C-alpha cells in the first residue's frame, strides 16, 4: 500500500515537471507610455515572471528586466522626444526581455513597479522600489507674480514728503481782490499777507502786495505794453502799523475777507505807471522771502 502511494506521488511530480517544460513561455507584447509621461505599461501574453529595475547614469536611463520572457514582433524603438523622456528601447537576450527608458540629460525621476495579472505598470515620479527610498523630487522654480503693494506699504516705502515752512491760515475774495494769509510753522504768530488784484475780464493779475510781520510791504504792478506785458516792483517800505485784514464768516462756513479803506492795501492803479517807466525798470524779478529774525528789546 505504501509502495502504491509512492508511485502515484512520483507520477504527479513528473506530470507537473513535464507540463511546465512544454508550457508556452511568457511573451512581452506591448509597451505604452501615458500622455503625461508618468505611467509606463508593459503588457504580456501570460503572467509576467520575475523582474527587476535599476538606473544607469550618463546618460540617464531606467532599465527594467523580465526573466524568462520572450519578445513578440513589436517595434523595438519608440521615439518620444518630450522632456524628460527621449526614447523607449525594447530588446531580448538569453531568454530575458529588457525595456530601457532614455531620459538623456534629465535625471531619472522616482519610480514604482506595480505587478498585475498580465502586465507590469511603472509609475514615474512617485513611490519607491525594493524598499529603497526614492530620490527627492526635482523642485522646479515657479515664477511668482509680485503682489501690488497695499496703500499702507506704499506710505511706509515712499520717501518722506518735504515739509513746508509756511502754512495757509485763511484765504478769501472781496470784489476783485484775492487774499491769502500764511503763517510760519515754527511760529504761528508770524503771519504774511498776500493780496492779488485780479482782472476778471482778461483773467489776469493787475498787481499784488505782500506784507510780512515786521510791516515791510512789497508791491508788484503789471503794466501792459504793445509787445509783452511788463512789471514794476516797488522797493520795500516800512510801515509803522502793518496792514490788517479782518474776516467775517460767510453763509457757507468759509471766511470772506474785508478790505479796509485807505493806503493800507498797498495797491495802485496801472495808470500811475507809464510804458516808458516799465521798459526802463525791466521785467519782474521774483525774489524769495527770507524770514527775518524777531528783534529783541535792547536795554540801555
UniProtKB/TrEMBL annotation:
A Pfam family per the record:
AMIN
What this protein is called in its record is Localisation of periplasmic protein complexes
Q: Which residues form the signal peptide?
A: 1-23
Domain annotation AMIN: ranges: 43-105
Region (Disordered) residue ranges read 124-168, 223-300
Q: Among its keywords, does the record have Signal?
A: yes
Q: Which InterPro entries match?
A: AMIN_dom (IPR021731)
**UniProt keyword annotations, A-Z:** Signal
Amino acid at each position: 500500500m505504501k509502495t502504491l502511494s509512492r508511485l502515484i506521488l512520483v507520477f504527479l511530480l513528473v506530470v507537473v515537471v513535464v507540463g511546465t517544460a512544454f508550457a508556452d513561455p511568457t511573451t512581452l507584447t506591448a509597451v505604452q507610455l501615458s500622455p503625461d509621461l508618468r505611467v509606463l505599461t508593459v503588457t504580456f501574453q501570460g503572467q509576467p515572471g520575475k523582474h527587476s529595475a535599476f538606473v544607469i547614469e550618463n546618460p540617464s536611463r531606467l532599465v527594467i528586466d523580465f526573466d524568462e520572457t520572450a519578445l513578440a514582433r513589436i517595434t523595438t524603438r519608440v521615439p518620444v522626444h518630450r522632456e524628460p523622456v527621449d526614447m523607449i528601447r525594447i530588446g531580448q537576450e538569453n531568454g530575458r526581455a529588457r525595456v530601457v527608458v532614455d531620459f538623456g540629460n534629465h535625471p531619472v525621476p522616482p519610480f514604482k513597479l506595480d505587478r498585475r495579472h498580465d502586465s507590469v505598470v511603472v509609475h514615474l515620479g512617485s513611490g519607491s522600489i525594493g524598499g529603497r527610498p526614492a530620490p527627492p523630487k526635482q523642485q522646479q522654480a515657479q515664477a511668482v507674480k509680485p503682489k501690488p503693494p497695499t496703500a499702507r506699504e506704499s506710505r511706509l516705502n515712499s520717501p518722506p514728503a518735504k515739509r513746508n515752512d509756511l502754512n495757509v491760515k485763511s484765504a478769501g475774495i472781496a470784489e476783485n481782490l484775492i487774499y491769502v494769509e500764511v503763517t510760519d510753522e515754527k511760529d504761528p504768530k508770524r503771519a504774511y499777507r498776500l493780496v492779488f488784484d485780479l482782472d476778471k475780464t482778461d483773467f489776469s493779475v493787475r498787481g499784488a502786495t505782500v506784507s510780512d510781520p515786521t510791516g515791510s510791504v512789497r508791491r508788484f504792478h503789471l503794466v501792459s505794453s504793445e509787445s509783452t506785458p511788463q512789471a514794476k516792483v516797488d522797493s520795500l517800505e516800512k510801515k509803522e502799523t502793518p496792514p490788517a485784514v479782518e474776516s467775517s464768516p460767510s453763509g457757507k462756513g468759509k471766511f470772506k475777507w474785508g478790505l479796509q479803506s485807505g493806503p493800507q492795501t498797498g495797491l495802485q492803479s496801472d495808470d500811475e505807471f507809464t510804458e516808458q517807466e516799465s521798459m526802463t525798470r525791466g521785467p519782474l524779478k521774483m525774489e524769495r522771502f527770507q524770514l527775518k529774525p524777531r528783534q529783541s528789546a535792547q536795554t540801555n
